[in-house]
């Protein structure tokens, strides 16, 4: 009987028009999807977390605010972010990038925070840490504030974050702690949760409501980054001792200078790791915070393609320091192109090599940086001639820092050349010269 | 002047440097205009001659031939002396009349002359072969330029690309010569299309190979400024040669080279002002010599790393503080465009 029914159904199925079969397939898929959606709801663990998030949001919402940078000219919001109370005497933590426009142009903007009660209150920027993208503001005293917990977390531990994404209202999100970034110049916590614009400067906390980090940026698709609470603690201690705001350009310049000094001292004091590229030894991955990528592009294929083989090694630091929407600094990048040819003559070959011999333009507008100053020469390294060009560009607000770019091209061999492009932003002149020297000393032709 | 023609007589005109040319006979009852335009009784093929330079006519008493400048014509001399506009000059046997670069001898018709080629009345001196030569020369120049590009820069170009380049170049050159021919038709009543095409070919043949000089200079001297200057000088040479050639062919200017030099000078001034104005904005892009060539081409000094780094140290010492540099002018449209590009 069962088999007969089956046979009948099978026969009917085969007789069904194609569109009816498609509808049936969709019905099955829909039912399965609904079942899958219902499963987590029924999961006790999810129910528990949901309950915890509800409780945390209810208890913490009073100490999380929206930070607003108001354009004085129009009287309207210019930038929004989030912030949170970290003391009873009115200190509020947020990101530096939330308040950077105000710090650079206090004549154009003012800062206020919008609390849970719907009040817009004035606030003063007391201290900033541009290197770790943090700022401390002073607002009204509050009875509600966060404790900071700098103790280590376990990977996979559930953490929460609050903020006001896209000005849609205060929200809480949950995610997991995934440790600190290993290959980053500036320590950051990898948070597997969805931070969105507007949540910058908001609190990230554990199940007990203790601050473990500050929302700072997102890499998309559940990849978000937090500034570790340790840096917030340090800045908070500095801010507590301040009676007047300490956000002068000199203070920012000092921290930038100290940061680059620490990075380049560490880099230059150690031995340079080298890699083989073509017929040369070149500086390779110089630090754990530098990432290198390679590529080979053999263009000798078609009859109308140029006989040029290009091997590229490209290395750079993975993160930078945000100073303003136009100005990020603190990057180091170096790239090598090993170019060879069989059939091109000398002038043809170097005409092609010329395309790789270009200075980095860096970022920053004219309001941030001065004019370029360049010097060209031919330098002999180990009996080989290199055409070299160096350009410097100083920062207007931080005169001890500059962008430095060195390009070099080996010009002895009419069929093979190496082009080096080295660029460092926000570097001191001494470190720039020392870095260039080390690169020149390390480049070596294989015997 | 001594009067030789004491009777109403005909007038023979022949070329001074071509005794074999058949002289042109004008009867006593005729009058004669001489110039480059086709409507003249005597057409001379001289790019420096005016469309209608002089008029020859009989004196009121019909005794003599006399000569008068037409429309303030330039480049006309009688016996190597300039003529005044509006004045009449009586013609004597053997007088030499120079119009542009052509010298004619005005002679008594009784003087025997040898029979030979007709006097210089054709419109295009080169004939059909000359046209072919001009076109072939232009194509050769364009193909040569493509060949240089192939030899020095990019070896991937093939005969198809060369053909397209030459054809396109030929079309553009024809349009260019055509425009000047129209100008010539307007001012000199003579189009001289192929003369203009030949002039353009000559100028291109001179200046095209020079296009590579700035890059070569940039590499051999490592001086971006020299590169820019050389670049501008070659452009100015091109402008000067083109203007002087085309002006001489198409207009009635007295001194076309002088005019071309003036135009070039004005252009130099405009370029200099533009360079000066864009100097500030150019500083916001790295300005360096990016030409590369084999080391054997390099003529400057070779430094050791220490010398070069010392030089960089000095550059840094001399760099003005960025804060002292002028801030961009928000009202300057050029500066705004630069800022947008940044």
From TrEMBL, chain A:
Gene Ontology terms describing biological process: proteolysis
GO function term, MF aspect, one: serine-type endopeptidase activity
InterPro entries per the UniProt record, alphabetical: Peptidase_S1_PA (IPR009003), Peptidase_S1_PA_chymotrypsin (IPR043504), Peptidase_S1C (IPR001940)
Chain ranges passing through the membrane = none
The organism's superkingdom is given as: Bacteria
Pfam families reported for this sequence: Trypsin_2 (PF13365)
Q: Which UniProt keywords apply?
A: Hydrolase, Protease
Q: What is this protein called?
A: Serine protease
Native organism taxonomy: Bacteria, Pseudomonadati, Pseudomonadota, Gammaproteobacteria, Oceanospirillales
From TrEMBL, chain B:
Q: Which Gene3D superfamilies match?
A: 2.60.200.20
List residues traversing the bilayer. 127-148, 163-183, 192-213, 225-244
The stretch of residues making up the signal peptide is none
* SUPFAM superfamilies, alphabetized: SMAD/FHA domain
Tell me which domain of life the UniProt entry assigns to the organism this sequence originates from: Bacteria
Q: Which InterPro entries match?
A: SMAD_FHA_dom_sf (IPR008984)
Zinc as UniProt keyword? no
Keyword line: Membrane, Transmembrane, Transmembrane helix
Which protein, by its recorded name, is this? Answer: FHA domain-containing protein
């Amino acid at each position: 009987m069962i088999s007969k029914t089956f046979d009948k159904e099978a026969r009917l199925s085969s007789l069904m028009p194609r569109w009816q079969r498609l509808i049936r397939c969709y019905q099955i898929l829909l039912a399965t999807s609904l079942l899958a959606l219902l499963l987590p709801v029924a999961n006790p663990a999810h129910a528990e977390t949901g309950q915890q998030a509800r409780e945390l949001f209810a208890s913490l919402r009073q100490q999380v605010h929206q930070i607003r940078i108001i354009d004085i000219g129009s009287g309207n919001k210019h930038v929004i972010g989030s912030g949170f109370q970290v003391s009873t005497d009115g200190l509020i933590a947020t990101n530096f990038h939330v308040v950077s426009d105000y710090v650079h142009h206090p004549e154009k903007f003012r800062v206020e925070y919008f609390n849970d009660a719907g009040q817009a209150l004035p606030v003063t920027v007391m201290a900033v840490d541009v290197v770790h993208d943090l700022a401390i503001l002073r607002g009204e005293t509050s009875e509600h504030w966060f404790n900071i917990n700098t103790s280590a977390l376990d990977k996979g531990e559930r953490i929460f974050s609050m903020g006001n994404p896209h000005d849609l209202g205060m929200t809480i999100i949950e995610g997991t702690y995934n440790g600190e970034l290993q290959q980053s110049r500036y320590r950051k916590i990898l948070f597997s949760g969805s931070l969105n614009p507007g949540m910058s400067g908001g609190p990230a906390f554990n199940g007990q409501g203790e601050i473990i980090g500050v929302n700072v940026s997102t890499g998309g698709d559940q990849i978000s980054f937090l500034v570790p609470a340790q840096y917030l603690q340090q800045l908070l201690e500095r801010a507590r001792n301040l009676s007047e705001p300490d956000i002068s350009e000199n203070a920012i310049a000092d921290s930038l200078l100290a940061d680059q000094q620490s990075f380049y001292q560490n880099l230059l004091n150690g031995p340079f790791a080298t890699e083989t590229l073509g017929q040369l030894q070149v500086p390779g991955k110089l630090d754990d915070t530098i990432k290198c990528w390679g590529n080979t592009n053999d263009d000798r294929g078609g009859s109308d393609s140029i006989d040029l083989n290009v091997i590229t090694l490209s290395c750079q630091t993975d993160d930078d320091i945000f100073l303003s929407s136009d100005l990020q600094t603190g990057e180091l990048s170096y790239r090598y192109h090993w170019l060879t040819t069989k059939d091109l003559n000398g002038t043809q070959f170097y005409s092609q090599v010329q395309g790789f011999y270009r200075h980095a333009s860096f970022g920053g507008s004219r309001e941030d940086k001065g004019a370029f100053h360049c010097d060209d020469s031919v330098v002999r390294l180990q009996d080989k001639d290199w055409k070299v060009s160096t350009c410097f560009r100083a920062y207007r607000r931080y005169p001890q820092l500059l962008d430095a770019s060195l390009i070099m091209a080996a010009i002895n061999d009419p069929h093979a050349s190496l082009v080096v492009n080295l660029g460092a932003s926000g570097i001191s002149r001494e470190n720039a010269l020392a870095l260039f020297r080390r690169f020149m000393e390390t480049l070596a032709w294989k015997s | 002047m001594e009067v030789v023609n004491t009777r109403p007589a005909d007038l023979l005109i022949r070329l001074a440097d071509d005794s074999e040319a058949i002289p042109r006979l004008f009867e006593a009852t005729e009058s004669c205009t001489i110039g480059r335009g086709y409507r003249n009784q005597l057409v001379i093929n001289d790019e420096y001659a005016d469309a209608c330079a002089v008029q020859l006519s009989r004196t009121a008493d019909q005794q003599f031939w006399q000569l008068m400048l037409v429309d303030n014509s330039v480049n006309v001399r009688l016996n190597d002396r300039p003529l005044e506009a509006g004045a009449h000059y009586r013609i004597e046997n053997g007088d030499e009349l120079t119009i542009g670069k052509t010298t004619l001898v005005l002679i008594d018709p009784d003087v025997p002359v040898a029979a030979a080629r007709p006097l210089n009345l054709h419109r295009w001196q080169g004939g059909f072969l000359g046209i072919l030569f001009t076109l072939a020369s232009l194509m050769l120049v364009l193909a040569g330029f493509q060949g240089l590009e192939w030899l020095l820069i990019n070896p991937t170009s093939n005969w198809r690309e060369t053909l397209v380049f030459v054809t396109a170049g030929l079309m553009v050159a024809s349009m260019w010569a055509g425009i000047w021919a129209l100008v010539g038709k307007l001012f000199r009543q003579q189009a001289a299309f192929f003369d203009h095409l030949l002039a353009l070919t000559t100028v291109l043949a001179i200046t095209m190979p020079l296009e590579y000089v700035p890059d070569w200079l940039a590499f051999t001297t490592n001086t971006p400024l020299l590169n820019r200057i050389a670049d501008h000088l070659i452009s100015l040479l091109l402008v000067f040669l083109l203007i002087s050639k085309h002006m001489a062919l198409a207009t009635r200017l007295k001194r076309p080279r002088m005019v071309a030099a003036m135009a070039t000078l004005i252009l130099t001034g405009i370029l200099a002002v533009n360079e000066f104005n864009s100097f500030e904005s150019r500083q916001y892009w790295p300005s360096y010599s990016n030409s590369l060539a084999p080391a054997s081409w390099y003529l400057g000094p070779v430094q050791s790393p220490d010398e070069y780094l010392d030089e960089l140290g000095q550059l840094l010492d001399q760099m003005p503080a960025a804060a002292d540099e002028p801030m961009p002018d928000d009202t300057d449209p050029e500066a705004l465009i630069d800022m947008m590009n940044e």
